[in-house]
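Tokens in:
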């Protein structure tokens, strides 16, 4: 873990707070909206289709977000899952897969929106872009523009990390719902039983470094591709 710097830590937490809350809230709301579209009103009935963070925040998941952000590696965590009742679905297996994909899909879309905002800031304040691309470049003056730019960059990173993390095929993550859809019924039921051990599996993968090894190339590749596509026109 990098040397602890209180000022840097507070700065990182400050610029990460808004995109982090937006990312985890909209991820869960996307699940709920997709479920409602497919016939399940449960999330709306229980007040989970809201931007109020309180119904969505899982304390342990939020702590995990904060710690992994400070650690400097892959950022991940979780919110309280939106309640889904597959009995309302016409085609439960397919619809559960679509609902699961809505969350990571929302995060990829948010990453794109944050990247577009970053490009807009680069047009207004080119010195920020230079300071981001080249460490030896002069730092931009002012407070608001650098803060907004750093917040947007954190928004890109957080959402890409969250999307790929949730697409891991480990129950109860969203990726496991996709895998289940393509498995025979008996195999899908056996696979679903791993949900009881999902947290332990993730913890082992995190501590062993396997999680970072798997996710880092996906996150870095997505980040490089997105920034090159969005920022290239303004360079």
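Residues out:
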């Amino acid at each position: 873990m990098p040397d602890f710097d209180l000022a840097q830590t507070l700065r990182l937490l400050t610029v990460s707070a808004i995109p982090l809350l937006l990312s985890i809230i909209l991820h869960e709301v996307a699940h709920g909206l997709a479920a409602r579209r497919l016939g399940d009103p449960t999330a709306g009935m229980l007040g989970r289709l809201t931007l109020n963070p309180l119904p969505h925040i899982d304390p342990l998941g939020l702590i995990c977000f904060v710690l992994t952000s400070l650690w400097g590696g892959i950022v991940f965590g979780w919110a309280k899952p939106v309640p889904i009742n597959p009995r309302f679905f016409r085609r439960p297996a397919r619809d559960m897969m679509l609902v699961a994909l809505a969350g990571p899909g929302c995060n990829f879309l948010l990453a794109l929106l944050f990247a577009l905002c970053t490009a807009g800031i680069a047009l207004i304040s080119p010195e920020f872009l230079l300071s981001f691309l080249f460490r030896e470049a002069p730092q931009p003056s002012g407070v608001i523009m650098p803060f907004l730019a750093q917040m947007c960059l954190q928004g890109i990173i957080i959402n890409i990390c969250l999307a790929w993390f949730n697409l891991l095929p480990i129950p109860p993550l969203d990726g496991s719902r996709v895998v289940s859809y393509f498995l025979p019924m008996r195999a899908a039921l056996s696979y679903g039983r791993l949900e009881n051990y999902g947290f332990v599996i993730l913890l082992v993968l995190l501590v062993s470094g396997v999680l970072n090894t798997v996710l880092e190339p996906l996150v870095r590749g997505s980040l490089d591709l997105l920034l090159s596509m969005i920022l290239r026109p303004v360079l």
